[in-house]
Amino acid sequence: MAQIDAILACGPGAIRDLEVYWHARRDDEEPYRIWPIVSTLAALDGSKPLLAIERIIESLPPDALERALCAADCIVVSPHPHWMPLALDLLASPHPLARVAGIEVLSRRQAFSLEQADEHLQDPSPHVTAAAIRALARHPDARLPSARVLTFLDSAIPTIATEAARALTLWGSREPYHALRAGAPLSRVLTPLAQIEIIALAGSLDDVPLVQSLLGRARVSSAILRAIGRLGSAGTWSFLVHYLADADLARTAHEALETVFGDLVPGGKEGRVPAAWREAIAQRDLDPAMRYRRGLPWSSATVAAECQAGMLPRAEVDRRIDELRARTSRFHGLDTGAFWPDLAPRLGDLARAYAGTT
């Protein structure tokens, strides 16, 4: 707040200066560069800062989806009282990424109707269609509007097919999962990561060979390591241990190993020693036919307790809430990125809701 006060002290030209500052850095490849600009403007009173936010989002190049989503993320957590007019203006914008941002803000603030989502499924922009499917997946009253969303599984556009596969899986449909298992066209549209995510949500240990084949045509990333950790196969230990020697992926590999096996090896330097993990895993009597989470047989109670423990980044908590929903058919309208003074009580409620469940 002290920094924002200092910007305000610069006088009426502060908003203009922030826009100039942004435009000088607009082409920076780091999507989160937009966060401090939007965050500062959203903290200022009046309509002019919000109009500046709208102009900034509308100025994004057509391929800057991550920056548009980051700006929306920022607006969602903003306490500005007039966020709704801004979101509605974005929704009505001629610029597709602005419409995406409007959908994200309204749906995450639970102010986006099923009718609005249905309307934007027909948008000419693939990014907007994908955002509308994502909004449907968030809506508490959306229960398999499959007649519309199921058709998008046949889309040749990866962003649309990915969101359709995720939404259907969250609603309890196994159609996307079976399509991937059968090698249907969907398997040629979705990225290896997107397919592994669907398998982690709906599959079983029988899918480990399929995951291995997907890894053969993927560049291993932090996201892939985390998804494999959530799959919970004890047999993946050697694959994960291998990446402890990768300077860029060692930390994530350690986190993925903990997701499967628990904290068998302490963090720090020892936690990145492959031999330490090999020895610790060898001492456990692990069932190769059982899915594990934190060293225990997989259960929704264990997953919910993971979320409550406070050791996971927000994105991984979101993935686990998806997992609970797909595996139990129970809807949770918990947005971990929303404006909560303290998220712990809501995660505590989640853990209590699943206590003692399998």
Provide an overview of this structure.
This protein is 59% helix and 1% strand. The protein has 22 helices and 2 strands. The protein has helices at residues 2-8, 14-24, 34-42, 48-58, 65-77, 83-91, 96-108, 114-120, 126-138, 146-149, 158-170, 175-181, 186-189, 192-202, 208-215, 222-231, 237-242, 250-261, 274-282, 300-308, 314-328, 344-354; strands at residues 292-293, 296-297. It has a two-stranded antiparallel ribbon. α6 crosses α7 (96-108), α11 (158-170) runs parallel beside α14 and α20 (300-308) packs antiparallel against α22 (344-354). The longest helix is centred in the C-terminal third of the chain and has 15 residues, at 314-328. The model has no long low-confidence stretch (mean pLDDT 91).
Distance between the first and last residues' Cα = 45 Å
How many DSSP H or I helices? 22
> How much of the polypeptide forms β-strand, as a percent range?
under 5%
Going by helix content, strand content and strand pairing, the class is: mainly alpha
- Spans of at least 5 consecutive residues whose pLDDT stays below 50 are none
Q: What fraction, in percent, of the residue positions are helical?
A: 55-70%
Tell me about the biggest sheet?
Answer: 2 strands, antiparallel
Strand order, largest beta sheet: 1-2
How many individual β-strands? 2
Give the SSE string. Answer: HHHHHHHHHHHHHHHHHHHEEHHH
Mean pLDDT: 91
Total separate domains = 1
**Tell me, what's the shape?**
globular
Radius of gyration: 22 Å
